[in-house]
């Protein structure tokens, strides 16, 4: 047999195999549809706008990604900090989170304020501005709720602090942490009636362990109809817009029962058949 012939047929076979591999994955469904399925982490079922850290970017709304640590802990990363996601309220779009770095011990190696990316999240009204102050050697710092850290001396915990106050100037480090008061609106029950001068680090940690609430502000209204039609939501797969991934292709709205063939001219085609997807992949492979 001619070598060129067998080479090109091998190549064709290669392309064909690729085709099978990408276009018809084991279940025969559109790849993004498979990749963007909701995922379970511990007791939480997580879906759009969030995507798993390791999934393609088009599975979530830009910026919203969560990690699942050891199959149990749901983790959110923002700036340099990691937060444990304690609870998710899907109807109110609220995440309850707690700072991972404070969960073990409030004595920190590096002091970082809690900051939100306000283009993704916002605080709910249900929190107090509390702060941890470290290295408070000045005699004019408050003498209540003090704790001490082996490496950085005395600190104190202010459960409600005006960020504009000058208190932080008296200590070397201040770390602002919102927390949700439980029970009494202005004071956590642990401290009711107590004017104790010292507070144990474990107590402060347990207070902060309850976390605080943030809302995710992405508008996900288009997702509801997509999900109802049997699709899985995504964003920015072909363009910077919402995508509804269906078993047979992608749509900008909802899944239709049968795919619109690519060859049929349509004024506003909403379905990109999976064959087009495979075609572009093939091209990519050929020209790379
Ligand atoms: C906030 O999130 C948006 C969306 O992911 C990102 O583009 C931006 O860089 C983030 N801002 C900061 C300060 O991290
Ligand atoms: C997951 O959580 C369960 C129950 O809280 C716990 O027993 C188990 O050790 C956790 N697994 C990991 C990997 O953290
Ligand atoms: C936290 O924010 C306060 C007030 O803006 C600031 O004074 C302080 O230096 C910040 N702490 C750190 C560790 O950046
Ligand atoms: C964030 O929350 C504050 C207070 O709850 C509110 O005034 C503000 O408008 C919110 N910002 C956005 C972008 O939703
Ligand atoms: C805290 O700040 C004071 C005055 O700025 C400084 O003298 C002291 O060395 C600092 N302590 C530490 C542990 O950084
Ligand atoms: C969310 O998006 C939908 C569809 O684009 C729009 O109709 C709705 O007004 C938006 N809602 C908000 C709160 O912006
Ligand atoms: C969802 O579908 C309903 C019924 O078809 C429609 O009235 C509504 O406008 C759709 N919602 C969005 C956000 O497109």
Automatic annotation (TrEMBL):
Show the catalytic activity.
Answer: L-seryl-[protein] + ATP = O-phospho-L-seryl-[protein] + ADP + H(+); L-threonyl-[protein] + ATP = O-phospho-L-threonyl-[protein] + ADP + H(+)
MF terms (GO), sorted A to Z: protein serine/threonine kinase activity
Q: Key word Glycoprotein present in the record?
A: yes
Give any Gene Ontology cellular component.
Answer: membrane
Q: Which residues form the Wall-associated receptor kinase C-terminal domain?
A: 194-248
The UniProt keyword set, sorted, is: Glycoprotein, Membrane, Signal, Transmembrane, Transmembrane helix
Domain of life of the native organism: Eukaryota
Major location (coarse): membrane
Task: Tell me which InterPro entries the record gives.
Answer: WAK_assoc_C, WAK_GUB
Where does this one sit in the cell? Membrane
Topology of the protein relative to the lipid bilayer: Single-pass membrane protein
Residues of the signal sequence? Answer: 1-28
Per the record, a Pfam family? GUB_WAK_bind
List where this protein forms a coiled coil: none
Query: Would the keyword rRNA processing turn up in this protein's UniProt record?
Result: no
Provide the protein name. Answer: non-specific serine/threonine protein kinase
